[in-house]
Amino acid sequence: MLVWARTSDRPGQKVARSRGAASIFKAMDVQIFGVKKDADTRKALRFFKERRIKVHFVDFKTRGPSKGELRRFADKHGVDVLIDRDAKRFQALGLQAAYYGADRWIEIAMDEPLILRLPLVRRGQDVTVGYDDTEWKRWQVG
Fold first, then answer.
1. What CATH topology corresponds to 26-141?
2. What pLDDT, in 10s, does the model give residues 70-79?
3. Half-sphere exposure (CA, 13 Å, Cβ side) for 63?
4. Helix or strand or coil: residue 101?
5. Does the predicted TM-score (pTM) go above 0.85?
């Protein structure tokens, strides 16, 4: 429920203050990393848009991922989950037989973000890899 209140620092101006369930959405901002052409990334953007949740979208076509961003997802889910071995770009680079350590995979993914399982979604310390609407719904409740 939204309640209109007057602020003391700006006389005459009304500001919406949230109460109850609406405050859950107010506090929930998510960051989505992906590529606009990817179907799962588009579904993730639509999921949050339908729920009127503020989204910060980072397009890997214009800005590649940083090592810290990828490390955050790899620490939580593991590099094996982060790398999409079925991706066209993964196959084109001939990485099927490659056995690298986590740090090397992250370096490759920094240069070739299309080998990642997209979208990468972050809310505070919570992160998901791929389309995971059940986890995102849990974020809304908790």
1. Glutaredoxin (3.40.30)
2. 999 999 999 9
3. 8
4. coil
5. no
